[in-house]
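Readers of this paper often ask what the protein records in our data store actually look like. This encoding replaces a full spatial description with a residue-level series of whole-number codes. For reference, a complete record is included directly beneath this paragraph.
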Amino acid sequence: MQGDLEDWQHESTLMGAVYANSSLNIAAADSLDSNTGCFFDRNPPGIYGCKVKATKDKEGLSESIWDVMPEYYALQMISDCPLASRAWVFQERFLAPRTLYFRASELVWECRKSFTSEIFPDSFDNQVLTTPGLSKYWIRGKRGSVAESWSLIIPGFSPGNRTFGSDKLVALSGISRLFATKFAASYIAGLWREELELQLVWYVTCGLTARPKAYRAPTWSWAAIDGDIFQEPTYDGSNMRLYLSIEDVAVKPMIEDQFG
């Protein structure tokens, strides 16, 4: 219900479960707003892509056909679009088991196992690690380091835009809940009590803005500021020694939901 704060606080806590339990997430990737929709006038020959004929040997006796593609094709097809600029979309993409993206040029498919498109219907790289594929390792795989896994989340989420700055941690709450369950970890304002010493090693790579006037999170949390955040991954114990120890930490959530 628009304009109902109590209803919003309740429903926002359920968003992660909605996407995680969906069968198919449909994304209007190139829509600037709710008036644009999914469909665009496009160039049909464009979905055939670009192919070149090349020789396999110096004599030119053997030829083969090769597909030509931009170096960062997968990244451009999903991340370089209006929808991807929204912070809320990161957890939707991460938690949904499969998503069909309606781009202006072609349809793109992403699931936990593969990334395909109309130009490359059989995929182009069987080794590509998709965003929803990341969750597969933490849901079904062995429990590893919460600091190392979380360091993969922050750079993908932090550049996203939000209409309201106060939504920063709420827009990540679905993933936070998954981590809390998977790693049996204690959530504290965008970080985790376990291995917290390592998670404090974060910095802004670009896009730093003035600190928000309204309090959002403790200053030691990356969530307190806006910008592209990079968090150093965890370390191999043989290569680094810790010279600090956090004795105690306490946070008081501003709303009932500790992940918000």
User: Anything to note?
Assistant: The mean pLDDT is 85. Residues 166 and 193 are 22 Å apart (CA to CA). DSSP finds nine helices and ten strands in the chain.
